[in-house]
Amino acid sequence: MPKLVELTNAIAEKSEQVQALYDEEDAGADHRETISGLNREIEELEKRALDAKAHEERRAENDRRLERYTRPVTGIALPNGRADADGPPPGRAGAKAIEEAVRITLGQRFVESAEWTGYLKSVAPNGQVSPSTAITSPKLVVPGGIKTLITGAGATSGGAFTVAQDSGIYEPLGRRTPSLRDIVTVRTTTSDAVEFVKMLTRVDAAAVVAEATATAGASGTKPEGGMTFERVTAVVRTIAEWVPATKRAIADAGQLRGIIDDELRADVADELNDEMLNGDGTGEHLVGLANTSGTQTQAWDTNLLTTTRKARTKVRVPGRSQATAYVLNPTDWEALDLLQDNEARYYFGGPMVLGTPRLWGLPVVEEEAQAAGAGWVGDFRKAVLWDRQETMVSVSDSHADFFIRNMVAVLAELRATFGVTRPAAFVEMDLTA
Question: How many CA atoms lie within 13 A of 273 on its CB side?
Answer without folding.
Answer: 22
